[in-house]
Amino acid sequence: MALFFRTIAGVMLMLAASLGMAPAHAEDGYELWLRYHPLAAQQAQYDRSRASQLVADAATPTRAAARAELLRGLRGLLGAAPPLSDTVTRSGAIIAGTTASSPLIAELHLDTSKLGKEGYVIRSVTLHGHAAIAIVGNDDIGVLYGSFHFLRLLQTGQPLDHLAITEVPRVKLRVLDHWDNLNGSVERGYAGTSIWDWWKLPDWVSPRYTDYARANASIGINGVVLNNVNADALILTPAYLQKAAALAAVFRPYGIHVYLSVRFSAPIEIGGLKTADPLDPEVQRWWRQKTDEIYKLMPDFGGFLVKANSEGQPGPQDYKRTHADGANLFADVLAPHGGVVMWRAFVYSQSSADDRAKQAYSEFKPLDGRFHANVLLQVKNGPIDFQPREPFSPLFGAMPKTPLMMEFQITKEYLGFATHLVYLGPLYEEVLSSDTMAQGKGSTVATVIDGSLDGHALSGMAGIANIGTDRDWCGSDFNQANWYVFGRLAWNPALSTRAIAEEWIRMTFSNDEAFVKPVVDMMMGSREAAVDYMTPLGLAHLMGPGHHYGPAPWDTSLPRADWRPPYYHRADHQGIGFDRTRTGSDAADQYAPPIAASFNDVKQTPETLLLWFHHVPWDYRMRSGHTLWYELVAHYTQGVTDVKRMRETWQHLDGYIDADRYRKTAAFLSIQEREAQWWRDACIAYFQQMSGLPLPPGFAPPQHPLSYYESLSFHNVPGQSSW
Ligand code: BDP
Q: Which residues contact 243 (CB under 8 A, 6 or more apart)?
């Protein structure tokens, strides 16, 4: 049925397109996936008969938000909002509420016992002799989540009959981490400046904060860290806490808790103490008072995120204490209020000569069991740093007594900034579905972080936000999909990212099959394309120094060895790759034995990770029968070809969506093609100089000599770090 409507809509749009008519409405991406633009006539007619009246109260702020969203969505999608009613008087009523809030819902005797606080059911029911759809939560927030889900069914053209949907989030804390500085800049942000207008808060509370909260609630995000992990102690001063509290008030009806990044040395910087030693009673007292002060302003405050003893940040090791001592200091002052500590495992030492990929594990694994109950260890998906491809971090599965929280990067620091079209769903899915083998087959990363493998009630997933003041929020329309897929996977890490891409496209652009299908394919292939033109076959960290823009595999300008690309690729005349097997740094043995065995064996290591784990000669025979050198060149070339194909796909889609968003993506794809070519050519030129080998036949030589690529330098690159 729904398919039928979509096809009809598709035919009509194709007709419009063939007549050269683009949809008239100008769009700038601000509405995200909550556009609620009118559905095609026949689908709207079908939906209208199933949404003919709305029974929903607005007695609490959250139920008011749910009702407002349903009215707004239905008005937009169907042309007019259904009339509000106190009871069911005709077929096609939508009833939204909780058993406690709605006598009508109580009459249904639905089993809500397994829904928890945030779950919901959407069910086709009969009430007083009329067919109706009930959207029911145990708690108000479930009603809001269910309302967004119901609207998604309409937005994506799903049938509305025989509904029997039950949803419960698998992960408890679903958090966006903003790397926003108090001066308005955003570390690794490529979408303008911070959306938090700190200067004008708390007096001016921009309506944009409400739209931000709606977008987050629509995908189940329930926590927001407002400020950068490289934290400024000032965030804990009364003036800033008032500002944070104003934001918390906006977010509260949407089920979103505010968290803050804190600077370990804050007791010295803003408290006038001489030390920040976590075992010092004065320090403990200072944090206790500060925490109590925060909870007075924000009774539902979520807790603290801490980056300590990493990249110059202060931490417990400054006082010869452990990370557990540091985390427990915060855990103890937060516990009486129900707050949590998200302690970051992104730690590598200034002084250690050990492989950087091993250091987080070496540091934290021995501390398993030493953290208090309300501490989550927040672990980046890979052992190094958000590269286009890394193996999963060996910490997953290795610390059964500690809840491990996933940290993904949504902002594309290493994946083409704002302009490259790279859908991160496949990257996230690859990590979540990786088997750690920690407790035998099926111990996937997803089961570690949702708490099911080790029986943790506390679980979490964080994403480094890609949001800024740009009208489209994320620096490009397609980057919105990365915010979206993060939220959907945090709700349920087992979802298919292809299905998520499809629903996002339908909501964001069009339900037309002729548009949806090629765009899903383009998105699904985009991450592999980026891996190919940047860091194929397990290479990593070849980006420009500091700003991470463009290729610089030759660069040695930064002071630390492990900030320089040659540290990672180790290319020389003989071969390329980082030996992390037993003959090398032995990082492979940080994994569970069966995984370690395959990573230690060059023949068993997936070729996608070959150079991550092995240093191999240029003439090493790949599974294809070609040499490594051939395959390296082929992958770089394939990446560029894929981007060219993405551009062609997009060229065929002119007319299916509004002209403004169409043109922006077209322009960004041409930037991406140019930069993919630059990546390929610069890397091939450099590695060719290393290998001394001729280019395999059939491959075009780089457009410029290596010296040209090496001579490029960039100024005012966006998103640079503040430290
Ligand atoms: C790196 C970023 C840096 C961050 C750091 C972190 O380049 O700006 O501060 O991660 O996660 O990827 O702390």
A: 196, 198, 201, 202
Boundary-marking domain end, from 145, 167, 189 = 167
What's residue 479's pLDDT? Answer: 99
User: What does the block give as tokens for 674?
Assistant: 């140019």
Regarding whether 536 and 408 lie in a shared domain, the answer is no
- How far CA 281 is from CA of 284, 360, 516, in Å, comes to 5, 29, 60
Q: Mean pLDDT for each 10-residue chunk of the chain (723 residues)? A: 45 42 71 98 96 98 98 98 96 97 96 96 97 98 98 98 98 99 98 98 98 99 98 98 98 99 98 98 98 98 98 97 98 98 94 94 98 98 98 98 98 98 99 98 98 98 99 98 99 98 98 98 98 99 97 96 96 98 98 98 98 98 98 98 98 98 98 99 98 98 98 96 70
Tokens of 613: 């784990």
Ligand 1 site, CB within 6 A: 187-188, 229-230, 307, 346, 385-386, 413, 721
Whole-Å CA distances, 611 to 239, 381, 389, 540:
50, 18, 11, 9
- Do 451 and 551 belong together in one domain? no
- Which residues are CB-neighbours of 257 under 8 A, at least 6 positions away? 222, 223, 224, 248, 251, 300, 301, 302
Q: What is the pTM of this model?
A: 0.96
Q: What is the CATH number of the domain that holds 548?
A: 3.90.1330.10
Cis amide prior to 202 (ω within 30 degrees):
yes
Q: Is there a catalytic annotation at residue 413?
A: yes
Cα 56 to Cα 87, 378, 434, 467, 473, distances in angstroms: 9, 39, 43, 32, 31
| C-alpha pair distances (Å), 663 with each of 29, 473, 569, 674 | 12, 17, 38, 17
Q: What is the spatial distance between Cα 373 and Cα 333, in angstroms, rounded to a whole number?
A: 12
Is 357 in contact with 405 (CB distance < 8 Å)? Answer: no
> So what's the pLDDT on residue 351?
83
Q: Please give the residue range of the domain that contains residue 81.
A: 28-167
Per-residue pLDDT at 352: 87
Q: Are residues 102 and 158 in the same domain?
A: yes
Residue 358 lies in a domain: yes
Task: Give the tens place of pLDDT for each residue, 336-357.
Answer: 999 999 999 999 987 889 999 9
User: Domain ends where: 118, 149, 167?
Assistant: 167
CA of 346 to the centre of ligand 1 (A): 9
Beta carbons of 702 and 557 less than 8 angstroms apart: no
- Residue 464 corresponds to which amino acid? I
Concerning whether 512 is annotated as a catalytic residue, the answer is: no
Q: What is the pLDDT of residues 482-501, one digit of tens each?
A: 999 999 999 999 999 999 99
For the stretch 173-185, pLDDT in tens is: 999 999 999 999 9
Q: Which two tokens stand for residue 356?
A: 């950087």
Q: Are 543 and 388 in contact (CB under 8 A)?
A: no
376, 450: one domain: yes
524 falls within a domain: no
69, 385, 429, 435: the catalytic one is 385
Shortest-distance Cα residue to atom 12 of ligand 1: 385
User: Atom of ligand 1 at shortest distance to CA of 464?
Assistant: 11
- Identify whether residues 360 and 323 lie together within a single domain: yes
Same domain flag for 329 and 424? yes
* Pocket perturbation via mutation, ligand 1, pick of 179, 311, 405 by most ligand atoms within 8 A of CB: 311
Ligand 1 pocket, mutate which of 187, 348, 409 (most atoms under 8 A from CB): 187
Same domain, 156 and 183: no
| Residue 99, domain CATH | 3.30.379.10
**Nearest alpha-carbon partner for 190 in 672, 720, 722, 661:** 720
Please count the structural domains in the chain.
3
108 and 214 within one domain: no
107 included as an active-site residue: no
